[in-house]
Write a structure and sequence with these properties.
Helix content of chain B: 40-55%
Number of helices of chain A: 2
CATH topology of the largest domain in chain A: Beta Polymerase, domain 2
CATH class of chain B: Mainly Alpha
Distance between the termini of chain B: 54 Å
CATH architecture of the largest domain in chain A: 2-Layer Sandwich
CATH class of the largest domain in chain A: Alpha Beta
Number of domains of chain A: 2
Strand order of the largest sheet of chain B: 1-2-3
Number of strands of chain B: 8
CATH superfamily of the largest domain in chain A: NADH:ubiquinone oxidoreductase Nqo5 subunit
Largest sheet of chain A: 5 strands, mixed
CATH architecture of chain B: Orthogonal Bundle
Helix content of chain A: 10-25%
Structural class of chain A: alpha/beta
Strand content of chain A: 25-35%
Strand content of chain B: 5-15%
Largest sheet of chain B: 3 strands, antiparallel
Order of helices and strands of chain A: EEHEEEEHEEE
Largest interface: A-B, 31 and 36 residues
Oligomer: heterodimer
Radius of gyration of chain B: 22 Å
Radius of gyration of chain A: 18 Å
Shape of chain A: elongated
Number of helices of chain B: 16
Order of helices and strands of chain B: HEEEHHHHHEEHHHHHHEEEHHHH
Strand order of the largest sheet of chain A: 1-2-5-4-3
Number of domains of chain B: 1
Distance between the termini of chain A: 56 Å
């Protein structure tokens, strides 16, 4: 039996379940076997002292929604990309934007920004005053630099 | 002659080809790393982010009412649908429902926007396959929609017409007449456009049976919208979780069970016909009354505060467009996350384009309906 920390109803009427991150994969696998076959989105929220990860799961046949939430204080969350192929890009996006590291992900790279970008933009403590420029090296790979003369 | 053992040699002889980010067939700035064995595509890796502006961060830095402009710039060919998606979430969070008249006007505008978006798709899809003529026909019709948008909002594409609690300005009899005139004339023109495609044998042979997307794969990858419906799953947010007044309108969801490129083409065309049907009903039903909620009048708008979390989804022209809004009680949103349907639909391309000819790769990526403002945000 998976321990559920809290169950609430959101402002939009959707069922919210909070679990510890150790139980996350087991709970989502259980929900998938109940028919929640479509992972709608994964959102990371920066709560300053911790990061919250929110999973929206959708049952296409019965048209039901469920929201699973978990928290992490060390930026590490177990990956669910083996359960849902669509989690692959979603998790990469959250890594890119918030620095959440999904453990067990096959290809934990940035999705939008170049690999050498410094910082994760959606963090609340991200320094917007430092401008980074993007350029392309001879092999066709993008890289980020602080030097305005190097960028285009 | 010694025929080389292809099973052994292919691993070494793969040619890696880089396509894009600037390429006519990639609809903007998609970059594809393709592994080729002769002309057969063995592996595709889409690389995105060339139009990334981080709209989510920009929204966090603005008031609730100002964040709307970044949504116009997401799916810039069907901007009204994007505005609607954001407002569905923002109005629930702020507790400012739009009045009845604004809801009906929004339905009309959202469906006009869907037609405009599908017409761009159809024209560009023709270009992908080397057909120049339908492109002009599509854009002539699209221009008529954009003229209506100009009349209601003052702007052609980035309309910024809907606002929190209603719409920016009321529509008058002239605009209603123009829209009615459009719905009368458009179906005939649409059949003309349709025939320029389907009466072309090359078009049919390049799309029939190409790019099969199985329904199980589609759901696993989060594919929604016309692509999912072309795989035989009858799922549309307008029916599944009706928003605005869609539950009071009689329309059908087109579904195809053929799962290929041609099915996606046919589904989108049928959607345009259904959109006309919706507009015809909605334009007659627009009630009298206020067109915005007085709680959201302009002087009060920047003082709106939201607390809690809301996820709202709408059916945009690409698929299920979701906006997840988190408010901390301040005048600016704490976190905005956008579920971009085109991004999810793109993620299935490596599956679709496995072991196809390289020319078909563009036919397949054409049917996904990519708009990079939305994919990269």
């Amino acid at each position: 039996m998976i321990e559920i920390l809290e169950e609430t109803k959101g402002k939009d009427g959707r069922r919210n379940i909070r679990v510890a991150k150790e139980n996350l994969v087991a709970l989502i696998a259980e929900l998938k076997s109940q028919g929640y076959d479509h992972l709608s989105l994964i959102t990371g929220i920066d709560k300053k002292d911790k990061l919250e990860v929110v999973y929206h799961l959708h049952n296409v046949k019965e048209n039901q929604y469920i929201v699973v939430r978990t928290e992490t204080s060390d930026e590490r969350v177990p990956s669910i990309s083996s359960l849902y192929p669509s989690a692959n890009w979603e998790e990469r996006e959250q890594y890119d934007m918030l620095g959440l590291v999904f453990e067990g992900h096959p290809n934990m790279k940035r999705l939008f920004l170049p690999e050498s970008w410094v910082g994760h933009p959606l963090r609340k403590n991200y320094d917007l005053s430092k401008v980074q420029y993007v350029n392309m090296d001879e092999d066709g790979n993008d890289y980020a630099t602080f030097d305005p003369g190097d960028g285009w | 002659m010694v025929v080389p053992d292809t099973a052994q040699d292919t691993s070494k002889d793969w040619v890696e080809l880089n396509i894009g980010p600037q390429h006519p067939s990639t609809h903007g700035v998609l970059r594809l790393k393709v592994k080729l064995d002769g002309e057969i595509v063995k592996d595709v890796e889409p690389i995105i982010g060339y139009l990334h502006r981080n709209a989510e961060k920009l929204c966090e830095m603005d008031y609730y009412c100002d964040a709307l402009v970044y949504f116009d710039r997401m799916d810039y060919v069907g901007a009204m649908n994007m505005e609607l998606g954001y407002l569905e979430a923002a109005e629930k969070l702020l507790g400012i429902p739009p009045p009845e008249r604004a809801q009906w006007i929004r339905v009309v505008m959202a469906e006009l926007s869907r037609i405009a978006s599908h017409l761009v798709w159809a024209g560009a899809f023709g270009l992908d396959l080397g057909m120049l003529t339908p492109f002009f026909y599509c854009f002539i019709e699209r221009e008529k929609v954009l003229r209506i948008f100009t009349a209601v909002s003052g702007s052609r594409q980035q309309t910024n017409y809907m606002s929190i609690g209603g719409v920016y300005q009321d529509i008058d009899d002239q605009i209603i007449y123009d829209i009615e005139q459009f719905t009368e004339e458009f179906p005939k023109k649409l059949e003309e456009i349709f025939n320029t495609f389907v009466k072309n044998d090359i078009f049919i042979s390049r799309n029939k049976g190409i790019g099969i997307l199985e329904p199980e794969v589609a759901i696993q990858y989060g594919v929604t919208g016309p692509m999912l419906r072309a795989s035989g799953i009858e799922y549309d947010v307008r029916k599944a979780e009706p928003y605005l007044v869609y539950d009071k309108i009689n329309f059908d969801i087109p579904v195809s069970y053929k799962k290929d490129n041609l099915a996606r083409f046919l589904v989108r065309f049928e959607e345009m016909r259904q959109s006309v049907k919706i507009i015809k009903q909605a334009i007659k039903k627009i009630p009298d009354g206020p067109y915005f909620n007085p709680k959201a009048k302009k002087s009060l708008m920047i003082r709106l505060r939201g607390e809690g979390e809301v996820y709202a989804r709408t059916e945009s022209s690409k698929g299920e467009f979701g906006v997840y809004l988190v408010g901390d009680g301040g005048v600016k949103p704490y976190r905005v996350h956008v579920r971009s349907p085109a991004l999810k639909n793109l993620s299935v391309l490596p599956v679709l384009a496995k072991d196809v000819m390289i020319a078909d790769l563009f036919a397949i990526s054409g049917t996904i309906d990519l708009v990079f403002g939305e994919v990269d945000r």
